[in-house]
Amino acid sequence: MIFRQALTPKAQTDTTDLKNPAPWFRRMFGHETNSGEMVTVNSALGVPAVYACVNILANGIATLPMQVFKRTTTGRTRDKKHAVAKLLETRPNPYQGPFKFKHLMETHRNLWGNAYVNIDWGADGRPRALWLLNPAQTEPIVDTAKNELWYHTTLPNGDNVKIWNGDVIHLTSLSTDGIKGKSPIQVIRESIGSAQAAHKFKTRFFRNGASMTGVLKVPGMLNQDAKDVVRDEWEKANTGLNNAQRVAILDAGLEYQSIQMPLKDAQFVESMKFDKTEIATFYNIPMHMVNELERSTHSNIEQRAIDFIRNTLSPIYTQYQEEFTFGLFSEREMLRYYIKFNLETLLRADKKTQAEFYEKMLDKGIFSINEVRELEERDGIENGDKHRVDLNHVSLDIADEYQLAKSGLKGGEDNQEE
User: Fold this and answer.
1) 303 or 297, which is more confident?
2) SS3 for 376?
């Protein structure tokens, strides 16, 4: 029955045209909300709160350097010469630097819910370029017969290709099947649709005149033609920004009665704030970062900035680290190599706090002088790689002996015995 209905030609009432598309045709390219607005990726970016949230997350990831580290017998060391390091830190592909590449990748993830990176392998088995696939034209498909994951995509030249999962790094937003992420734009489309409708209403309001709307009263009855003439003449003389605040002259017994301006209505203002808050909450962005400062103070903004790193960015860059490490290194290399973001740029405090931090790290032998100079982008100095500790701190097994020698008691006892 279902297949018969699907194959049956639609009635003439289901036909449509591009100038005045029917609702079922518009739904093919977007999702209609209760507000009547069609929500797509492009329309959602027209909502300032959505644009700000997506850009904040993309900038947060793009500014963090992705670095390659190699495990050693004593810990780890940064490897700048590995082919993967050159890709991630210098040029992922001929057309994009690291910042643009990561910014676009995170933008894809936050708009479509998925970011797909195609790995271009060299003859030596090492990656030589990383290319972002169009998320709107890419679909992960599981071959249940062979239990393999493939990515069906359309290349910029129009070719439809099927790419094996070993040649793709796939980053997702929230997922319910573990394979494909859900599009945040479609999950929160009602709030975005409401914000779009409010934005259009505000735009139409100012286009029709930055003054209150109202009604014109006339004595007696007017036919339709007369009504059209009066309305047209009134709009020509009294609407538009050029005519704002000008004095209207009423003749022929016309009387103007204004209607309360809706932009000052508390419910309208609150609804716009509510949509903005909902969108920021959905993307887990602190409100002060989208210029909502009503309940913000200096102290809680600092704490919210730390929470943003810990609760918002941390899960994102953790996924990046895991997927890029697995995708770019062989199984043998993964025993020694891994990829990690450098968070110093995000955690860097003011000069005084930074100096106190360096002092503690140097005193406890955690940092060497040259490591501190490297963080400050300065050249190393001779003998600056040695780690030093405060002489007041010694190991427990020689603590008693050290204290006796320091006080001179041990030497005094020996002298007395002689």
Assistant:
1) 303
2) coil
Q: Among 185, 186, 194, 188, which residue's Cα sits nearest to residue 37?
A: 194
Tokens at residue 189, please?
Answer: 């489309």
Tokens of 371: 């490591």
Contact 129, 91 (CB under 8 A): no
Strand-strand pairing, 160-164 and 168-172: unpaired
Kindly provide the residue ranges of all beta strands, DSSP E only, lying in 180-264, ordered along the sequence: 214-217, 255-258
Half-sphere exposure of 96 (CA within 13 A, CB side): 17
Residues 6+ positions from 173 with CB-CB distance below 8 Å: 109, 110, 113, 114, 181, 182, 183, 184
Region 93-115: mean pLDDT is 96
DSSP 312: I
Distance CA 232, CA 212 (A): 17
Angstrom distance (rounded) from CA 363 to CA 207: 65
Residue 186's SS3 state is helix
Lowest-pLDDT choice from 191-195, 231-235, 238-242: 238-242
Amino acid at 412: G
Residue 85 has pLDDT above 70, yes or no: yes
DSSP lists the bridge partners of residue 69 as: 78, 338
pLDDT on residue 267: 44
- pLDDT exceeds cutoff 90 at 298: no
Stated pTM of the model:
0.68
**What distance in Å separates the CA atoms of residue 209 and residue 235, rounded to the nearest whole number?**
9
Neighbours of 162 (CB within 10 A): 10
Tell me the C-alpha distance between 272 and 278, whole Å: 10
For residue 212, pLDDT over 60 is answered with no
At residue 165, does pLDDT exceed 90? yes
Instruction: State the average pLDDT for the chain.
Output: 76
Neighbouring CB atoms inside 10 A of 272's CB total 18
Q: How far is residue 187's CA from residue 50's CA, in Å, rounded to a whole number?
A: 13
Going by C-beta distance under 8 Å and a sequence separation of 6 or more, which residues neighbour residue 131? 93, 117, 118, 120
For residue 112, give the 3-state DSSP assignment. Answer: coil
